[in-house]
Amino acid sequence: MNQPTALTLRRDAAQSAAGLPALLAAAERLAQTVMPGVHGRRRAGQGDEFWQYRPAMDTDAPRHIDWRRSSKSDGNFIRQKEWQLAQSVMFLVDPGASMRWASHKNLPQKSHRAATLALACSMLLQRGGERFGLIGAEAILPRTGDVQIMRMAQALSNGEDTAQDFTAPDLSALRPDTQLVMISDFLGDPAAFTRAADQAAGLGARGVFLQILDPAEEAFPWRGRTIFQSVTGRTEHETRKADDLRGRYLERLSARKDTLQDLARRTGWQYHCHHSDAPAASALLWLYQALERASR
User: Fold this and answer.
1) Which of 46, 106, 210, 213 is 20 to 30 A off residue 167, Cα-Cα?
2) Which among 99, 123, 129 has a CA at the least distance from the CA of 111?
3) Mean pLDDT in residue range 274-290
């Protein structure tokens, strides 16, 4: 394998630097569209910071009553503290070459939509002071803050220019009691995702399957003579009657979705399919709310 030249390194660095502001800007705009309707994931529990007072009930022990607050009214009140999240949220964005495909120049690549959603969701989590990170070939340990956002953006901008059409999830950096967001088209080997979900469940992790598909992958609009070629060019199939393949293809895609839904039910995860021509804000809001449901 030839060693990269200084010119190649400079060009690659320039391309990475150029993509970083664009991704940050896109994620920031996306996060801002849903922030007004998003509430922090706070609720009562073991913590250090005051959250709210609530009326005392017959089942509450007298030692839990805040007598100072209660003396100012006719009833007794319980001082609730904010629930401290025990889980960090880790994102796994599929680096497979199949994610770098779009059926039309006006549509985003699935990889770009996935990276934007992961980064925008991280911004929402940061708003609540929660920790988040990235797993995969380039693992970023869970933290919060602006520096962590920059780390995430840099890693997602650089991506992983893999020569494989489909990759198996790398969960080597996953730790116990973690919320995991897997974003992929899930068009690769379903057994790989099943093994990953079982591995995550074994560590006590709960989370989300977010499937991103191009609208053409959902509708199969091809007719007549067609050459199908993978993004890497390693797989190619030519047919004179693409119409004849449509029924079988849609059956297999439906079966793949059913597999993901069944896997989600079995592991207690959440599943959602998002199309790249649909508004990203709807997927982001669903994702954030799914994480809240998974944390309960």
Assistant:
1) 106
2) 99
3) 95
